[in-house]
Amino acid sequence: MKALISVSDKTGVVEFAESLVELGYEVVSTGGTFKALEDAGVPVTSVSDVTGFPECLSGRVKTLHPFVHGGILAMRGDPDHMKQISELGIDTIDVVAINLYPFKETIMREDVTLPLAIENIDIGGPTMLRSAAKNHKDVVVVCDPSDYTDVILGLRQGDLTYDAKYKLALKVFEHTASYDAMIAEYLRSVKDLPLPVNPTFTYEKIQELRYGENPHQNAAYYKEVKPWAGALTNAEQLHGKELSFNNINDTNGALACLREFDEPTVVAVKHANPCGVGSADTISGAWQKAFDADPVSIFGGVIAANREIDEETAVGIDKIFVEIVIAPGFSDRALAVLTQKQNIRLLKLPLIGDPAPAGSLDVKKVDGGILVQNIDAGVYDKGELKVVTKKAPSEKEMRDLEFAMKVVKHVRSNAIVVAKDGMTLGVGPGQTNRIGAVHIALAGECGGAVMASDAFFPFSDCVEAAAEAGITAIIQPGGSMKDEESISKCDELGIAMVFTGVRHFKH
What we know:
This protein is an alpha/beta fold. It has three domains: 2-189, Methylglyoxal synthase-like domain (Rossmann fold); 231-373, AICAR transformylase, duplication domain (Cytidine Deaminase, domain 2, 3-Layer(aba) Sandwich); 382-499, Cytidine Deaminase, domain 2 (3-Layer(aba) Sandwich), CATH 3.40.140. The protein is 36% helix and 19% strand. It contains 18 helices and 21 strands. The strands form five sheets. Strands 8-13-12-11-9-10 form a six-stranded mixed β-sheet. A six-stranded mixed β-sheet has the order 16-21-20-19-17-18, with helices on both faces. Strands 3-2-1-4-5 form a five-stranded parallel β-sheet, with helices on both faces. It starts with a strand and ends in an 8-residue tail after the last strand.
């Protein structure tokens, strides 16, 4: 009986090989693994002695040989297979333990270069793993050191069950598929290329979740292999119970909106929509604005801040129930206040405002497929702003218009946001018609406020409703066949209107 071992991650490999030798296996190995086993006193045969051919091309070619793959792929129950390998002098290989060149670890390095990454693409390893996994009925294949113990226990009992071999083979195909996807994603990331013909994505499981959006749905949380610094998956949980599916989704939405702001800002999100956003000179002032924006909806919501949470802010948050607070940090006094509550979750994300890198993709699942697009980066180009009414907005109104537009971009369409003095006064999310979203956003006191729309006004009724509520300026993309109708109505009612030329639908 032969076992082929060739691993980059040498965790537990000496003990695994020793156990195989005790069970009567001849251990065959390559390169660094051969040396590690030999140095540990484990009887080991070089793969070159099996193939009769030396390793070459700086170790790029070692196991790509019929004496290796014939020994792995021969079906033991096929007399013709067994006759052929006997005539060719090929011995069967019954255990294959491989893990791959550290491509992931290489691309995570700060000093990674394209040539270095390419040199760490494994060729022989995936080939041997796939060969063994294909022939899993006859071959035990191991790609994860955490499986060594169970494999040895099974072999000591005579052999592993077919179900055990099947699961090990499945793990191999998931592993090699992920490895190849990681390579493809990296190669695409270093060049400005169009969307792929055959997109490949790979993720690593962070945790099993208690359930999904509803208790009857199973769910898990996965992360990208190399998320950017400001990504939610880099957050450290400091306090509170396990995150839920909805917690994670809402927090991600809060972060997306928060990244639009440089000044101290707090974003409150409820059911994936911003319900209160405030900007001020201090984070406590921003918190108060976000709370005052909608003190009802914020209950049970998610709070995201782009400055350290201080004691004053923590005392304010502590007065209500919120699910999550995420910030770049928490002062000791703030932690002392907030950790008194068992059910609040506190997340620390130091580079909370770091934007997604250029070229990042947004992926949405549909039945039978996916939709892929570039992320909606930026809000508008200030150089492209166009005042389309006789009245131009004042400097203060322009600041509020910019604030409102940053928020409305992250509200579900049809979306309307009313804002004043760096604070949302009303949010109209996810309506089937724009006038409905307008009425929701204008439900509070709106005198002297401004309005932002994620898409154009198809009719002048939105302008009329805004004027009745005391709105003084409106910002929207423009582009409707009836733009002139809305512009004329603004001129008639004394409202300034600005076109951005950029739509921000969010479905």
